Automatic annotation (TrEMBL):
Name of this chain's protein: Endonuclease exonuclease phosphatase family protein
GO cellular component, one term: membrane
Keyword Hydrolase applies: yes
MF GO annotations: endonuclease activity; exonuclease activity
Organism from which the protein derives: Chrysochromulina tobinii
Keywords from the UniProt entry: Endonuclease, Exonuclease, Hydrolase, Nuclease
Origin superkingdom: Eukaryota
GO BP terms in the entry: GPI anchor biosynthetic process
Amino acid sequence: MLGRVDVHLSVLSKYAISSVRRVALPAIRSDGCCTRLFNLRRAVQHITLATADGVPVHILHTHLSAFTKGDGTVEAQVATLRSLIADAGPRWMLAGDFNALPPGVKATGLTGQAALEYPAALDEVPSPIAPLFDIAISAIPLTDLTDPHRRAEHLTCKYFGCSTAEVTLDYLFLAPAAWAVEQARVARDARWPSDHAPIVARLRSTLQPRGC
């Protein structure tokens, strides 16, 4: 990497943003001191939106580390996310590129760039993002992400030079008591200027207003 290595995260909203802050995530544990100086500095963007009923919406937007090869970095980053969720109140959502396969999806059989990033040896340890599926609703259910007949619909990452998406790395997690998912899909467009396809979701608030 040359130049700035801070990870820049953005959220576009038609609603007024009450506050925004950047929370640093743990660095890659296996990096040496020199590599760490020049590797990407991962972070969470924490945005707060005010609401008419007085219960704000907390949006956590992130991009976790890649190429950690199971050294515990992503687990430490997920622990930071869980801590932020615990303090976010009842109405929150968490989205981004988690650089981790869904729990239950094996790395064995991956090829090319995907096999380099997710070697088969990782199949021996639990997915580092499994705790998020335990405490949150996934906009695209885990059963769909792992179903061998349906998972191809939800692949989000198409590495540069590849003709089709190979793995699911991007997720939208929701507070269980606050949201119902009316529709969610991976939007694919050949003109999309990224190796990751976006998740498009329609949500309905299920949190009862105060006083009800």
